[in-house]
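Whether sequence alone determines local backbone shape is best considered at the level of individual chains. In the encoding step, the backbone of a single protein was reduced to a row of integers, each denoting a local shape. For completeness, the protein is quoted in full, as a sequence line and a line of structure tokens.
***
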Amino acid sequence: MSLRSDAPHLAIDAPEAGQTRPTSPTGRPPVRARVVRVARGWWRWLTSMPTALMLLFLLALAAVPGSLLPQRPLSQSAVAQYFADNPQLAPILDRLGLFDVFAAPWFAAIYLLLFVSLIGCLVPRTLGHIRSLRAAPPRAPSRLSRLPRHAELSTDLGAEEALDVAEEELRVARYRVLRKDGAISAEKGLLKETGNLVFHLALLAMLISLAVGKLWGYEGSVLVQEGQGFCNSFQQYDTYSAGPLIDGADLSPLCVDLEDFQARYEPDLTPASFTGDITYSRALDGPDEQATIGINSPLRVDGTRLYLTGRGFAPIFSVRLPDGTELTDLSAPFLPTDSTTMLSEGVLKLPDLGAGRDQLAVEGVFLPTAADMGGGLLTSVDPRPLDPAVAIVVYTGSVGLDSGIPQNVFTLDQERIGRGQLERVGAANLRPGESLNLPDGTSITFTGFKEFAALQLSRDPSQLAVLISALAMLAGLLTTLLVRRRRVFLRPGDKVLEIGGLAQGGSAEPAEFERVVTGISTALAAAGPPDRRDH
């Protein structure tokens, strides 16, 4: 990825003839000279192409654990669960920073070294290219016949007249022309090196933009049921991650209510569209505004984007306690386990039923269109809620919400069930309006369902810069691949115009050279019939 092609080495060039390196009284170079020599060697190694490629590979390799292992900025509970499942391995991985990869010092070191390597390559190469753009083409060699492509055109024109005709033709073909000492040097294709530099500069800009986005960006996800809402505060998100330079006061003021959710399907039950009608305000006391968001149609407000990333169902229950107390409109999101039929699983936890009462948990499956499989088993055959039902299991005891240990809100702690802290007291398949009566007189009724939307609010100040950098990289790469650097030299003789061609790297480019020769031959034909001889 570097622009240098010389192999890495740690030694400096030998002194010129007649020169000697300064030495100390012991015969060794002074300490300062040795330090400078070693520093130059390491700098050459750091800014060499193999080193830049190695750093780029290491950066990609270092990002892999961030995808394979749970990350603390995204889910503290997932990391805690990993520690519980892997009590011996997890502490070792934690000491290596693998649960927060992108904030680890070693990841930042690779990132910074790649920056330095790219900058060390680009600065001198850019300055050299600027000098090349300002410099004239090199003088024509004395023997054009030794070049990879060579041709001679016989003409009755004088030397100066022939060069005038050739110079005009080359300028029409957009060559940079130098006419000196009775010969012409023409050069074309410096845009290739420009494209190369643009590609690498855009790559550097993209890396900087991504770093800016990580430092000043944030992202939060939340499940919102119909008729409910949230505000842009990190306490209200199910998962939240932010850059190290962002705190709670930096979040844009925004409140959103989900008024209605619609899911439409094709005749073969493949999803056609998911949309949500929302009401939002840009401040707590600001005016309400309406909008509709979809999977590929986010809400954009003051640099933040609100995306619709998923959907599901939240069954609604009512609970009547033995003393007659009734709790209504109790619901919790059930997460889909089968996207084809939207069969969903979840749990409703009721930790506060009054003094002296055990806590209650309703674990179950929601089926949008239930079908009886026999033996008391239900399944869903359609993602649309045509015949909704739930299959529930009820537990009493301690659900553990007051234990201080993070837990998954969508499942029950199976260890608590195994230890007897949660006791199964009933199970039933229910359709809307049906109830399950528990032995202590508690009644649980399935009253209906709501739909919920999975929303993601994010702010990335570098999105536009990343897009521009990516487009610049593409333009630079295409320019580098499609443009060839070419040189043409002309020297007149006795009624002969000698032409030599050279492409970058010392190889000939026959097609372009033939076009140049044909163009000059045609131009010379207007002044006198030429006779061409190829070699």
Q: What stands out?
A: The CA atoms of residues 14 and 395 lie 83 Å apart. The first helix runs from residue 31 to 46. Residues 1-14 have pLDDT under 50 and may be disordered. The chain has eleven helices and 24 strands.
